[in-house]
Design brief:
The chain is built from 6 helices and 38 strands. With 446 residues, the protein is mainly beta. The chain is elongated, with a radius of gyration of 27 Å.
Length: 446
């Protein structure tokens, strides 16, 4: 009868002691943050008092650092300000300044090593560092609602990225505001990432993808950058509901990107190309709006078996640039695309134009291959060639054919505050400001 109570007593002795998480305030004095991190137990929350807190620091245990929106962790301008090597860590409510300037060590406001996992970086202001956040091999990281402002003390290509993701599966980057530096979000050799709802301005590329498979880019906004979304060497990605507004060279670029969906995106006011497709195959490009660009779509390098349906091509100087010897059909299942320069009727009122559309003619092909021929555009010979093609379609070259043009374009509304940013970018673009403004870095000090 006494055996069961004895066994229960021995079992209680063998159980580990339960550890209770605690919150503690960290004063704004030199050395206090180091001591608090060293003495913290797993699960503890360190609440930083308002004011400066000396760094750099390393987080190697599951704790939370919370600046409550009023604390500044500053580095000594060498290396990264906050280095994360542990798991189950949260960093929130901080101003983070004072990284080093080495690209070799990727000096960052926050740098996550490959041993890190399940890290939350939330509601921080990461200002004037070489790189904002470097996720280097860490898994299942969430970067949420941060403001990241890069440097301006070098040429754009010599700066660091706002968020750099390398070999970090399961990364979620959402609702961040990223400005200045080189690229807003640079993803290299990674997979299964989600990049959603971010605003990116005054950069080289808003999003730069290299070998980033099975991932999502959705509801992001690129305003006034050199290029919006550069998607290269990546397969099976979803690019949905993004906006590229007043970007300089290209809105969207697919370069060796395959089996992907580009749906519901808006590209407007790009000086170069709304969409550039280079050696990209088996993609769905549907229900996008390409408006007011130099070229709506430049389609080249043998790109094959891409479905083009439901898109709107509106007031681009050249709607499509495609050189080929055979016809390429841009419609699917009786539904094509909208063309603002296609004067047509819809007598049966089914929403489909009564005549098919070819965006390019023989003279377009001649002008692309022989630019000097542009001097002859107003000549009677050129007018005769175009009149002949209009009346005798058999003389047309190979190229894009839309057999079921749409009568109405897709509408994609732009929020008023984003339209204001777009207008400002048009009036004073980043590539012009870079030449005329003082490019010293006012944010580098803490």
């Amino acid at each position: 009868m006494m055996l069961r109570p004895v066994m229960m007593f021995l079992g209680l002795i063998a159980m580990p002691l339960q550890v209770f998480a605690a919150s503690q305030s960290v004063p704004s004095i030199d050395g206090a943050l180091f001591a608090a991190i060293a003495g913290a137990s797993p699960g503890d929350v360190l609440l930083l008092d308002p004011g400066p807190h000396q760094g750099p620091i390393t987080l190697d245990k599951p704790i939370t650092i919370d600046g409550q929106g009023k604390a500044n962790v500053y580095g000594n301008k060498t290396g990264s300000v906050i280095t994360v090597t542990g798991t189950d860590i949260a960093i929130r409510g901080l101003k983070i300044t004072g990284s080093g300037s080495s690209h070799e060590t990727i000096d960052s406001g926050i740098q996550l090593h490959r041993t890190a996992a399940r890290v939350l970086i939330e509601n921080n202001h990461i200002l004037g560092n070489l790189y904002g956040i470097d996720i280097h091999g860490a898994k299942n990281v969430t970067v949420l609602a941060n403001t990241i402002v890069g440097r301006r003390d070098h040429r754009m290509n010599s700066r660091g990225n706002g968020i750099y993701v390398w070999n970090a599966p399961g990364t979620l980057v959402e609702r961040n505001d990223i400005r200045l530096g080189r690229d807003g979000i640079f993803v290299n050799t990674s997979k299964r990432g989600i990049f959603r709802g971010n605003l990116m301005r005054d950069l080289r590329f808003a999003v730069h993808y290299m070998y980033a498979h099975d991932s999502e880019i959705s509801a992001n906004i690129s305003v006034g950058n050199h290029l919006g979304f550069a998607l290269m060497y990546s397969d099976r990605i979803t690019v949905r509901d993004n906006m590229s507004l007043a970007d300089r060279d290209q809105g969207l670029m697919l370069n060796y990107t395959n089996k992907s969906d580009l749906v519901g995106n808006l590209v407007r006011g790009t000086g170069g190309k709304c969409l550039f497709i280079y050696n990209a195959h088996r993609n769905l490009i549907g229900d996008n709006r390409f408006e007011g660009c130099g070229i709506g779509i430049h389609f080249t390098a043998g790109s094959e078996r891409n479905a083009m349906v439901g898109n709107a091509f509106i007031a681009n100087q050249t709607q499509v640039k495609y050189v080929g010897t055979r016809d390429v059909e841009w419609s699917f299942d009786g539904r094509g695309n909208f063309w603002s320069d296609h004067p047509v009727f819809d007598l049966d009122r089914n929403g489909i134009a009564d005549s098919r559309f070819r965006p390019n003619d023989l003279m377009d092909h001649i002008l692309w291959s022989q630019p000097a021929a542009g001097m002859l555009l107003g000549s009677p010979a050129v007018q005769l060639i175009r009149w002949s093609q209009a009346h005798f379609p058999a003389t047309l070259p190979g190229g894009v054919v839309d057999s079921f043009p749409l009568m109405e374009p897709i509408e994609i509304p732009v929020p008023e505050e984003i339209t204001s940013l777009e207008l400002a970018a048009r009036a004073n673009p980043v590539w012009l400001r870079e030449r005329t403004e003082n490019v010293s870095d006012p944010l580098a000090s803490h």
